[in-house]
Amino acid sequence: MREIIPQTLWIGNARDARDVKGVLDLGISAIIDLAMEEPPITFPREIVYCRLPLIDGEENHPPVLQTAIETLMRFIQVEEPTLVACSGGMSRSPAIVAAALSKINAISFDQTIKQIAATGPCDVAPGLWNEIQALLELNK
Questions:
Q1: Where is the Dual specificity phosphatase catalytic domain (predicted)?
Q2: Among 26, 48, 55, 118, which is least packed, fewest CB within 10 Å?
């Protein structure tokens, strides 16, 4: 798990998200679970759990993609300590984090994903990249 915004935003994988003690120890109170191929996680009441399953390729349902970005934006804006997780923590999670931060900070998705890639592994699937780019352009 890697911290993107101190005490506010983390990117992780399915194993990180399932470590309830580790999540609680970090003060994380919201999890956005993007892993379609992983079973849902049961958390204690202290954790807000949002399951918005995405795939690494194309053919994501646009409202689910939009909801993932907007939900994360809201959590960041109110400084809700949030973990964004997918199976490997290298494609969907960084992509959704970059999309939300690019909208909040009014900078390009390309620039934001480069900043995130500088913090750790990042390999966004081309299909997902294209879908997010198109969605961000549509909502300018």
A1: 9-116
A2: 118
Q: Which CATH class is domain 2-138?
A: alpha beta
Per-residue tens of pLDDT for the chain, all 140 residues: 999 999 999 999 999 999 999 999 999 999 999 999 999 989 999 999 999 999 998 899 999 999 999 999 999 999 999 999 999 999 999 999 999 999 999 999 999 999 999 999 999 999 999 999 999 988 77
Domain boundaries, the chain: 2-138
What secondary structure does DSSP assign to the chain, as a single string? -EEEETTTEEEEEHHHHH-HHHHHHTT--EEEEEETTSPP----TTSEEEEEEE-SSS---HHHHHHHHHHHHHHHHTT--EEEEESSSSSHHHHHHHHHHHHHHT--HHHHHHHHHTTS-----HHHHHHHHHHHHHT-
As to burial, measured by CB atoms within 10 angstroms (0-12 exposed, 13-18 middle, 19+ buried), residue 64 is middle
